[in-house]
Write a structure and sequence with these properties.
It is a single chain. The protein has 416 residues and is mostly helical. The protein is globular. It is built from 20 helices and no strands.
Length: 416
C-alpha cells in the first residue's frame, strides 16, 4: 500500500480585518456616455449582477454582463451562474439555457451549482426530460456528482409535469446512492404528490405523504417539515376536499410553531369549498381572525368561494349578504378584488338562480376595472341555462348577448 507523507502545514498568516466598508463598484448605466473610473474585476461584476436576482432586474443584469465583456473582463462560472439565476427568477427559462450553452461554448466548465440552476429552470418549462438529460450530462460528461439540491430541482420539474411516478423513482434513487435529503427535497416530493392529486387518489396520497414526513423525522438527519412543507400538504388536501386531514395538518403546524400565511389559509378554505363544507370554512376563518392573520385577496376570495360552492336557491340570498360583507371588509382594508373574487360572487348568485344580481356583479366588476374572463362568462351562461324560472326565449336572448360580448372582448370560449 502506498502511503503519502503529509507536507508540514505552513503557519497561517494572521487575518487582517479592515473596519472600513467595501467601496461599491460604480458601473455606468448602459444609456450613459460616461466612462467608469477604472475597470471592474470579475468579482465586482458578479456581485453587481447578483444584486439583480432579488430585484428581478434582468435588463440591468444583461447590461452589466455586456459591459464586463466589452471591458475585456472574462466571466467565470460564478458569473454565469448568477446571470442564469437572474433569468430563472424572472421566469425566463429559455435565457437560462441559452446562457448555459454560451458558457460551454466559451470554454467555461460548469460546476454542480450551474447544472442545478439549469435543472431548476426545467420546472418553468415543464420539461422533466430536459432536466434528466442535464443530470446525465453533469455525471457522464463532467464527472460531477448530484447533490441534494440537484434532486430537489429534479423533483420540482416532476411536480410541474405531474409526473409522480418519476418523482418517486428520483426520491428513491437519492436515498439509494447515499445522498441525504433535506427539507427542500421532502417539500418537493410532497409537491409532486399534491400536483398529481385528485378526488380518487387523495386519501392514498395523503397517507403516503404523512409517512414520508414521519420517516424524515426518524432519519439520522432528523428532517423536520417546515411551513412550506405543511402548506403543500394542505394543497394536496384541497385537491380532494380532505377537511379532516387538513385539520390534522393545521394542528401539526401549531404544534411545531409554524406560522400560517395567507396562501396556506387560502388552501385550507379551498379544501372546505371542494368538500362543500361551509361550517368548517367559517370555523377556519374565525380561527384565522383570532390568530391575527392579515388576509389577502387570496384568502378573502377563497372564503367567498366556500359560500359559492354551498350556494343553492334556498340559501343564496343569505350567502350573498355574507359575501358582500366580506367584499366591504376587503375594500376597507384596501384589498383589491380580482377576477376570481368576482367570479366567486357571480357563482353565489348563479347557483341560486339570482341572475339579475349576477349581472349586477358584472357591472360592479367592470366598475372596479376588473375585466371579465372566460370563467365569468361560463358561470353566467351556466346560470341562465339552469334558471328554470325564466322563459326559454329570455334565457336564449341573454346567452346570445353574453356570447356577442365575449367575441367583442376577445374572450375565446373554452366550452362548446
Amino acid at each position: 500500500m502506498i502511503v503519502c507523507k503529509k507536507e508540514p502545514q505552513r503557519p497561517r498568516r494572521p487575518i487582517r480585518r479592515s473596519k472600513a466598508p467595501r467601496k461599491k463598484l460604480w458601473i455606468p448605466e448602459e444609456s450613459s456616455d460616461r466612462v467608469g473610473t477604472g475597470r471592474g474585476t470579475v468579482i465586482d461584476y458578479t456581485k453587481e449582477i447578483q444584486e439583480c436576482i432579488q430585484t428581478r432586474d434582468v435588463t440591468r443584469a444583461e447590461e452589466l454582463f455586456g459591459m464586463m465583456k466589452r471591458q475585456g473582463v472574462k466571466p467565470n462560472e460564478y458569473t454565469y451562474n448568477v446571470l442564469m439565476k437572474a433569468y430563472s427568477k424572472a421566469g425566463k427559462a429559455d435565457k437560462v439555457f441559452e446562457t448555459f450553452d454560451e458558457m460551454i461554448g466559451e470554454g467555461v466548465e460548469p460546476n454542480v451549482k450551474i447544472f442545478n440552476t439549469a435543472i431548476n429552470a426545467c420546472a418553468i418549462t415543464h420539461d422533466v426530460n430536459r432536466a434528466l438529460n442535464l443530470r446525465s450530462q453533469m455525471e457522464q460528461e463532467y464527472g460531477l456528482e448530484p447533490d441534494a439540491f440537484t434532486y430537489s430541482s429534479l423533483l420540482n420539474a416532476c411536480a410541474k409535469t405531474n409526473n409522480l411516478d418519476m418523482a418517486k423513482k428520483i426520491y428513491q434513487e437519492m436515498s439509494s446512492v447515499g445522498i441525504e435529503g433535506d427539507v427542500y427535497t421532502l417539500s418537493a416530493m410532497i409537491d409532486a404528490y399534491a400536483e398529481a392529486t385528485n378526488l380518487e387518489n387523495c386519501l392514498v396520497h395523503f397517507e403516503e405523504c404523512r409517512t414520508l414526513i414521519e420517516r424524515a423525522k426518524s432519519d439520522r438527519k432528523r428532517i423536520m417539515a417546515n411551513e412550506w412543507t405543511y402548506s403543500l400538504l394542505i394543497k394536496l388536501c384541497s385537491r380532494g376536499g380532505l377537511v379532516e386531514q387538513a385539520t390534522w395538518v393545521l394542528n401539526e403546524m401549531k404544534k411545531h410553531d409554524e406560522s400560517l400565511n395567507t396562501v396556506t389559509c387560502g388552501a385550507l378554505l379551498d379544501t372546505c369549498a371542494k368538500a362543500g363544507d361551509l361550517a368548517s370554512g367559517k370555523r377556519f376563518w374565525n380561527e384565522m381572525k383570532d390568530d391575527g392573520i392579515q388576509h389577502s385577496v387570496v384568502s378573502f376570495t377563497a372564503m367567498i368561494n366556500v359560500y359559492a360552492e354551498d350556494s343553492n336557491p334556498g340559501n343564496c340570498k343569505h350567502h350573498l349578504k355574507s359575501c358582500q360583507t366580506l367584499l366591504r371588509e376587503m375594500k376597507k382594508k384596501n384589498v383589491k378584488p380580482n377576477n376570481k373574487t368576482y367570479n366567486s360572487l357571480i357563482k353565489v348568485c348563479a347557483r341560486g338562480g339570482m341572475m339579475t344580481e349576477a349581472m349586477q356583479m358584472v357591472q360592479f366588476m367592470k366598475k372596479d376595472k376588473v375585466v371579465p374572463d372566460v370563467v365569468t362568462y361560463n358561470t353566467l351562461i351556466d346560470g341562465f341555462a339552469s334558471a328554470t324560472h325564466l322563459g326559454k326565449k329570455e334565457i336564449q336572448s341573454n346567452v346570445n348577448t353574453l356570447l356577442r360580448e365575449m367575441e367583442a372582448s376577445g374572450v375565446k370560449p373554452n366550452v362548446i
